[in-house]
Amino acid sequence: MTYSDDRATMIEFKDVHKYYGDYHALRGINGTIKAGEFFSLLGPSGCGKTTLLRTIAGFEDISSGVIMIDGKDMAGVAANARPTNMVFQSYAIFPHMSVAENVGFGLRKDPRSKEEKARAVAEALEMVGLKGYGNRAAHALSGGQRQRVALARALILKPKVLLLDEPLSALDKKMREHMQVELIKLQRQVGITFILVTHDQEEALVMSDRIAVMFEGEIAQLADPETLYRRPATKKVADFIGTMNFVPATILSETGNAVEVDAKGLGRVMLDIDQAPAKAGESPVVGLRPETLTLLYDDQKAPERETDGVIDEVIYFGDMTYYDVYLGGTDVEVRLSMRNVPGRPVLDVGEKVRVAWSPSALVLFR
Ligand code: ATP
């Protein structure tokens, strides 16, 4: 992880609201994005992530609140006067121009000499892995190459912040995964702030230093990928990022730094306060990631806790097997990698098993 918290603030949102007519698209956005950070806005369709990105770019006005970029209030500052540049989903490259003309397009009013501009274009192309492609016709490029041209065209203007609106969504899976790695490398190389909009949680987890998870115009949680995964702030975040089992629970007692709960099927368990963020309004449930559970074979002992169960369902994927296990009053999914159980047979529905779990992997939602 390259992210460190002592970086300077690049963008700050202070209670940002956006209305489209009566529709309340952004509902009080607060938070900061650091200089040099790879930051993602993640959420389902319609949550407001593109709107938030466009307000940073200056393509959308905000209804109230403040957006600061690099220490300056952006109220009334036009898009072309902001230190930002956007790469669009549709790439928006000009098919009738060459690659070099596309990349140099933003420099047409730049006072530098022709040679200097050509050098800048060559540098930008090299940066995105398209060295020597300058004279090619843009319309003859593949999807991934067009994406690189669009990136080079944005980077040549040396923005402080690069805004990326679902830049990889038009690519096939293999090319998308390849470009994810390329984008991470590029961001580290140029060191500027990247802000990516995506609805793909895996993409956000792989690429980002930090992620803002958005639902219905609000940021539900802003954190690094590991915290989002291990300590989701709400059930909704937990469900959106990966898969989580939810087990009904009763809160038995609470002290300053620990909460004791009775979780259905699992029994009594003590949780640290950071596993039980206080959020009123949900009926308490305990969350367990399927990957943190395992099945015990023969006389294996659980390192921490274990619970008896019966297999309800088996889904076999070759390298992974998913089991639904009934634990008396509740079902949990257990995901086993073959690496963890080499040579073990796949178990059948109806077999009795013991499920091993770790109290530190639980999260209480309340
Ligand atoms: P998607 O992934 O589908 O693009 P999103 O999270 O980026 O979704 P936004 O495009 O930010 O969502 O839209 C948020 C909400 O605001 C949606 O309900 C959308 O219909 C609405 N909206 C966006 N732009 C406008 C507009 N120009 N006029 C009216 N409503 C709009």
Automatic annotation (TrEMBL):
- Its EC number is 7.6.2.11
Q: Which UniProt keywords apply?
A: ATP-binding, Cell membrane, Membrane, Nucleotide-binding, Translocase, Transport
Outline the extent of the ABC transporter domain: 11-241
Q: Which domain of life is it from?
A: Bacteria
State the family named in the UniProt similarity comment for this chain. Answer: Belongs to the ABC transporter superfamily. Spermidine/putrescine importer (TC 3.A.1.11.1) family.
What is the name of the gene encoding this protein? potA
Specify the protein name. Answer: Spermidine/putrescine import ATP-binding protein PotA
| Keyword Translocase in annotation | yes
Spell out the molecular function terms from Gene Ontology: ATP binding
What binding partners and quaternary form does the record give?
A: The complex is composed of two ATP-binding proteins (PotA), two transmembrane proteins (PotB and PotC) and a solute-binding protein (PotD).
- What is the catalytic activity of this protein? ATP + H2O + polyamine-[polyamine-binding protein]Side 1 = ADP + phosphate + polyamineSide 2 + [polyamine-binding protein]Side 1
Against Pfam families, the record matches this protein to: ABC_tran (PF00005), TOBE_2 (PF08402)
Organism whose genome encodes this protein: Rhodobacter calidifons
Recorded hits in SMART domains, A to Z, give: AAA
The record's InterPro entries line, in alphabetical order, gives: AAA+_ATPase, ABC_SmlMolc_Importer, ABC_transporter-like_ATP-bd, ABC_transporter-like_CS, Mo/tungstate-bd_C_term_dom, P-loop_NTPase, PotA-like, Transp-assoc_OB_typ2
What job does this protein perform? Part of the ABC transporter complex PotABCD involved in spermidine/putrescine import. Responsible for energy coupling to the transport system.
| Keyword Cell wall biogenesis/degradation among UniProt keywords | no
